[in-house]
Amino acid sequence: MDSISAETIAGQRLMVGFDGTAFNDDLKLLIGTLRVGGLILFSRNIEEPEQIRQLCRDCQAYARQCGLPPLFVAIDQEGGQVARLKPPFTQFPGNPAMRAFDDAVHFARTTARELKDVGINMDMAPVLDIAPENINSIMAQRAFGGDPQWVTAMGTTVIDHLQQRGVMAVAKHFPGIGRTVLDSHLALPDLDVDMAALTDVDLVPFAAAIANNVAGIMLSHIRYTTIDSIWPASLSPSVTADLLRGQMGYRGVVMTDDLDMGAIKPGYDIETAIKRILLSDVDIALICHKGPDIEAAWQTIHGAIAEDAGLKEKAKQSLQRILELKKNYLSGPWLQRYGLTAA
């Protein structure tokens, strides 16, 4: 770990979006200069399967050429309302339409096969939010439902069948946004719910996901006022360091939701957000749109770990978690599938 440069440590803690459908100069900057650890694909990056396959292959090859670990290549493919891949990829009606375990198994097996075939190795799924039926939940059209046991059973089934087939699952949005009615894409919601209710309901699926070795957990941009009255979950040590890692014992990779969302902007500039992330034992900052915030985030991480011994130690711990996950999922056979060779 001591031999890894601060530049690489800073880059590996970023997962970023980009414009374009083919390898380009922007990707050369992101991978070669900023040394990012992951990319996330959106509809703007997608045309058809062979194009995606070539894009992923070229990005991985360039990372290897630059002496970097393999890239996380992620996508939101929940089915239903949130599915970036359109036909000819299999289309699913979404989590609320699932009525049996076989539905979850079929979704996960099919999705894993189709993602892996084009070089995508991480799915930002499943949604583990619990959407009560008596409110106009923002997650009503994306959640498995309002019963914690059902959400747990379906969510862990998706996790297991994605990961058994080599695609990393990311459970979201910790510690649960099903009770909210305000869209965090637009503004920062406050949620005033006591810890007993969170523990007995909202946290149940996440505890099961941890027990099932979920590859990653995504934090919400919700301010849970009984946990932290000042900071949203994605920027709060009370949520990640204390609750998720301390009390719930999660040792895997934790990432934010998109820092470009309205819950974070314009209330928190990128430097403030990144410094909070570094303090909170969050491993990966997700920035989904091209722009100056990506480089500013890299500079903030790089500067912080150069100047603060405590943050440098935390950064090494984060890097260790990231590299361990990459070692487990992005090993030689996976790379060789796409015409690359392992170290």
Automatic annotation (TrEMBL):
PANTHER family attached to this UniProt entry: BETA-HEXOSAMINIDASE-RELATED, GLYCOSIDE HYDROLASE FAMILY 3 DOMAIN PROTEIN
Family under the similarity heading: Belongs to the glycosyl hydrolase 3 family.
Listed name of the protein: Glycoside hydrolase family 3
Superkingdom of the organism of origin: Bacteria
A Pfam family recorded for this sequence: Glyco_hydro_3
Keywords, comma-separated and alphabetical: Glycosidase, Hydrolase
Entry's transmembrane regions: none
Example GO molecular function: hydrolase activity, hydrolyzing O-glycosyl compounds
Domain Glycoside hydrolase family 3 N-terminal stretches: 14-324
GO biological process: carbohydrate metabolic process; peptidoglycan turnover
